[in-house]
């Protein structure tokens, strides 16, 4: 787990790419030839976890991850949706609810970010007990992702929990 790795300011751009925003969402490309970013405000939404999954699934369709041509590509998309569910659920259960979901992609990595108002530090439960209900969220994130961590802004409440998964080949 990495909690200190940060992308440089401006690493995920804010210019419109001409595709047009979705309802309640904003899309802008990141720096890079294939980079894209979608943002979904979640603060006052109901049914937040299914909403976040549907939003992410639509981005995967729009960015060519879905429909998947192979079992490996299908598994990669399902991993992304599972990680979104876990990050958003953790924000609901442990951090006063999520404020925003950000999904970004370039040719190599898909990055998920969930911002919340919480002060806690997410961590996989140790020791992990596979046979017990609950407590698997960050363990799943750790196992499925290339890297993950927490970003905080000095002087501001809350945090952003991020996770990166490899783009399908």
Q: Uncertain segments of ≥5 residues (pLDDT<50)?
A: 1-24, 26-34
Question: What's the number of extended β-strand segments?
Answer: 6
The averaged pLDDT comes out at 79
Amount of helix = 25-40%
- N-to-C CA distance: 24 Å
Q: Which properties best describe this structure?
A:
169 residues, alpha+beta, six-stranded antiparallel beta sheet, 3 helices, 6 strands, disordered N terminus
Helices and strands in order:
Layout: E1 26-28, E2 36-41, H1 48-62, H2 71-94, E3 98-105, E4 109-116, H3 137-144, E5 147-151, E6 159-166
Antiparallel strand pairs: 1-2, 2-3, 3-4, 4-6, 5-6
Helix pairs in contact: 1-2, 2-3
Characterization of this structure:
The chain has 169 residues and is an alpha+beta fold. 28% of the residues lie in helices and 22% in strands. Helix 2 runs antiparallel to helix 3. The protein starts with 25 loop residues before the first strand and ends with a strand. The relative contact order is 0.18.
In short:
By secondary structure, the protein is of the alpha+beta class. The chain has three helices and six strands, in the order E-E-H-H-E-E-H-E-E.
């Amino acid at each position: 787990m990495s909690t200190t790795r940060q992308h440089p300011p401006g690493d995920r751009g804010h210019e419109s790419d001409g595709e047009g925003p979705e309802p309640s969402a904003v899309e802008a490309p990141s720096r890079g030839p294939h980079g894209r970013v979608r943002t979904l405000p979640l603060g006052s939404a109901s049914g937040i976890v299914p909403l976040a999954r549907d939003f992410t699934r639509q981005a995967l369709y729009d960015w060519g991850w879905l429909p998947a041509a192979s079992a490996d590509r299908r598994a990669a998309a399902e991993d992304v949706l599972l990680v979104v569910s876990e990050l958003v659920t953790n924000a609901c259960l442990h951090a006063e609810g999520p404020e925003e979901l950000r999904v970004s992609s370039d040719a190599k990595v898909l990055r998920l970010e969930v911002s919340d108002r919480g002060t806690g530090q997410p961590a996989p439960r140790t020791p992990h007990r596979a046979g017990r209900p609950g407590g698997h969220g960050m363990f799943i994130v750790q196992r499925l992702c290339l890297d993950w961590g927490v970003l905080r802004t000095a002087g501001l409440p809350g945090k952003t929990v991020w996770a990166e998964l490899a783009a399908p080949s």
